[in-house]
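Review form for a predicted model. The reviewer records the input and the model, then writes brief findings.
Reviewer: anonymous (R2)
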Amino acid sequence: MTQQTSHIYRCVHPIIDTTEPVPLWFTTSSFSQYSALIDPDDRVWQVELDPCSHSNARLHSLQIAPAVNFVDRTNTQTPHSLSLELVMQDPNWEFVDIIFPPSSSVIPVELASETDSTQPRILVDVNVTNKQKALINYTIEAGHSLRDLSLRSNIFKFFIRGKNLSTGLFHTTDGPNTFDLDAMNHP
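Model under review:
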């Protein structure tokens, strides 16, 4: 079986004014059921996303990349690898973490040995060491029933945590519906 591989990019544009007081995440978020996942000192973070290609990832305008979305899986008996690269568009910000809620159905690679490997899984590996790029790699094991790879699929529900380099404060996006902020999902 040949593994299928896909890679797409999204540019991340912070849209909050840090010269004004920014409220704490837990005082404004409508996703309080996830408060245990979020640092209590984090501020709310408003971002917009748009598709961009690797060569255009540092431009601040909408750049449509050749692969805007992942193609749905047609053969669930074949393993599938997905790479989603988030590219920061503001030099005053950096990525700190990507936080998946339990409802996302993914298993972090570092916890894979602690889970039942007799059933096909969706493993995720997050790399934010670059600070200006967050690389999220998904491995959908052969036999897993997931076919829907649209950006509204549960596996793409996560919070983005970042740091403002001017203020030194940490911020987390309001909810795990990151791609509801994506320009391509709104006609």
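Findings: Helices lie at 25-28.
Further findings: Confidence is low (pLDDT under 50) at residues 59-66, 183-187.
Recommendation: see findings above.
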